[in-house]
Amino acid sequence: MTVLVTETEFGRAPEVFQSATVPCISVAADEPTLAREVRQRGARYVIVGSVKYTGEIYDALSPGGVIARFGVGHDGIDKEKATAAGVLCTNTPGVLDQSVAEHAMLLILAAARRLPGLTAEMRAGTWALGPAGLELRGKMLAVIGGGRIGQATARIASQGFGMRTIGCRRTPSSMSSAPFDSLTTDFGEAVRDADFVSLHLNAEPANLKFIDRARLALIPERAWLINTARGAVVDELALFDALAAGRLAGAALDVFDREPYVPADPSKDLRTVANVVLAPHVGSHTREANRAMAARALQNIVRAEARDFAGMDLLNPAVLQRAAL
Fold first, then answer.
1. Is the pTM of this model over 0.90?
2. Three-state secondary structure along the chain?
């Protein structure tokens, strides 16, 4: 029972993988190499990051094998192809909520107090107050996507900083609105009075370029757009245009449509905009979350080996209907 772990993910929690009860081997993440390693080693289980896998890996793994996502977003895994191949797909929900929520708040704070700009000025030898920052108390945070991470962000914002929060979900919920002050299914209503708009959407097809020119136009000019979800949910060219035209106060981004970041249009590079805060997709990159994600990914594999499918974080339950399993 060998588990192949892509290099970046192995390096995020080596102590977990090295002490696991099953042998874990670090391998390159590109699909041709990973598929070749699967075949050569006769491996049935792989733990992967956010790299997109489009074909070869599904042919390489045998029915009953597992692609375990180290993380929660799973748009890089083709669940239909995996299901057709009899391969189970899992992720690690819940274990990174606090880390990503804290990171979202860090970006909000950095934006509110102009931290990147102040740091750049200090490095250049400039000592100047510049424009005043903002206190967060009483400011409105619109959380787009009311799942666990969005709820955790709202909780920190309201309980820790005294912000007002509104959650926006695609469908109404019968549950209490807590920790939000209010809930809506109307994006325009959610952002109407917002000072910060924080995105917590997955990258399912319905959400691709969800933040487009029309929705950006609904966000107040004083507001900052915060994205710790998936880069694909934002039309980056439309965002650049809105920032360049002064139609938004700024943007704080941890995720991008192409990672490492490459602008869709070289003339509209978000790295050239002064009022943009940038980070290289590190929202879940804490010691605690890394260890928890590694342990959860391994747990899913162990349960697959034991045929405890009900106990897995299974992304493609239709695969269980295959007789070969």
1. yes
2. CCEEEEHHHHHHCHHHHHCCCCCEEEECCCHHHHHHHHHHHCCCEEEECCCCECCHHHHHCCCCCEEEECCCCCCCECHHHHHHHCCEEECCCCCCHHHHHHHHHHHHHHHHCCHHHHHHHHHCCCCCCCCCCCCCCCCEEEEECCCHHHHHHHHHHHHHHCCEEEEECCCCCCCCCCCCCEEECCHHHHHCCCCEEEECCCCCHHHCCCECHHHHHHCCCCCEEEECCCHHHECHHHHHHHHHCCCCCEEEECCCCCCCCCCCCCCCCHHHCCCEEECCCCCCCCHHHHHHHHHHHHHHHHHHHCCCHHHCCECCHHHHHCCCC
CATH superfamily to which 3-95+287-321 belongs = NAD(P)-binding Rossmann-like Domain (3.40.50.720)
Catalytic machinery residues: 230, 259, 281
- Residue 297: predicted pLDDT: 98
Summarize pLDDT for 37-63 with one digit per residue, the tens.
999 999 999 999 999 999 999 999 999
Range(s) of the chain covered by CATH 3.40.50.720: 3-95+287-321, 97-278
